[in-house]
Design goal:
Length: about 160
């Protein structure tokens, strides 16, 4: 029983270290920004990208995928607070990446859509994710489906602990 406990602790430590590495890599958006800057010829975007957070880029991506979307819907989609989206959309508006509009029938609701500059950056960001997805798919191909199902189930259960 003691050996099993030690084995489980060892695996737990490996998982913690791996998850920590993933989280720190995801929160360190310098590599994403470097990739984006290196792949655009647009000088305005080259100057703008360093000022944007990962949340800004993902918010822009969500807005670009919808014709007009409300802040609350963006928040639900990204699983963040409405307040966080309010700050991010204000920043995106100030940089000219999105625009806001209202319906004449309901002036309380604000809808967001992308500008041409926002579309250009959203498309570039999508290319970044497509490249990452391609690499991760190659990694997944190394494992059988049953193993991948087990990992997915574990991660889903782990996410429910918090």
């Amino acid at each position: 029983m003691n050996d099993l406990h030690q084995d489980l602790k060892g695996i737990q430590d490996r998982i913690k270290k791996s998850l920590f590495h993933i989280f720190t890599a995801e929160s360190n958006d310098d590599s994403e920004k470097t990739w984006l800057i290196g792949r655009t010829a647009n000088q305005q975007l080259k100057k703008l990208i360093p000022q944007l957070s990962v949340l800004c880029l993902h918010t822009l991506e969500i807005i670009s995928q919808h014709e007009c979307i409300k802040g609350i819907d963006i928040a639900h989609n990204l699983n963040v607070t409405k307040g966080a989206i309010s700050k991010v959309t204000r920043r995106l508006l100030n940089h000219g990446l999105i625009k806001k509009s209202q319906r004449p029938t309901n002036l309380k609701e604000i809808y967001f859509s992308v500008t041409p500059l926002g579309t250009e950056l959203a498309n570039l960001h999508e290319q970044l994710h497509m490249e990452f997805d391609k690499k991760s798919l190659e990694l997944l191909k190394r494992y059988d489906l049953a193993s991948l199902e087990l990992v997915a189930d574990f991660l889903e259960n782990l996410s429910r602990l918090h």
